[in-house]
């Protein structure tokens, strides 16, 4: 298999909402990002063991080819930034009256999901 090849896992419609985007794209990215992060944040290991886990995870990640890219295309004011970040840039959509989690973009959802995985594992690597 050509390591320089790219594959489209999902192409979403202009009618898809933030939930559809996260379901098809974000949750996979969060899962793939969580393991090396959880290993690095694992509190019971010594610094040497944490370093070893981080190296192992980095090697596994490099060998798995599970790198992700999100491309958001559109004309001016079409919602590219909203899709990626949600709400007003730099403002949590939960803080804006009348908006809820459904308006959150990909990045805040990824961060929430990664740390939720950490908490579900009791602060330990998966």
From TrEMBL:
Signal peptide: none
Organism domain of life: Eukaryota
Amino acid composition bias (Basic and acidic residues), ranges on this chain: 91-103
Record-linked Gene3D superfamilies: Kinesin motor domain
InterPro entries attached to this UniProt entry: Kinesin_motor_dom_sf, P-loop_NTPase
Region (Disordered) residue spans: 40-66, 82-103
Protein's recorded name: Kinesin motor domain-containing protein
Taxonomic source organism: Pseudictyota dubia
Lineage: Eukaryota, Sar, Stramenopiles, Ochrophyta, Bacillariophyta
